Amino acid sequence: MRICPKCNMQNEDSALICSACSTTLPVLPSSLTDVDAFMADKARQKRKRRMMVLAVAVLAVIGGVVVGILMYKARQTQLLHNDFYKAFTESDEKSYGEFWQCFYRDSTKQAFALPSNLVLNEKLTKAYEANRKGFKTHVDEKCIPKLKEVARRIGSLNPPPAYTQALERYTKSSVQVEKVAERIADELGQLYEAGSKDKKLLAASDEWHKGYDPRDKNMPKDAIAYDHFLRCALPNFDTLKDGDAVAAEFRKHYKVPQEYVARLRSECMKPLDSPPAKVTPKYLEGYKKFEGEHEEPRDTRALKDFFRRANVQRQTVVLEPVGKAWLEYKEGRDEVLKVAAKFLQ
Question: Which of 81, 173, 253, 307 could make a disulfide contact with 329, Cβ separation 3.0–4.6 Å?
Answer without folding.
Answer: 173
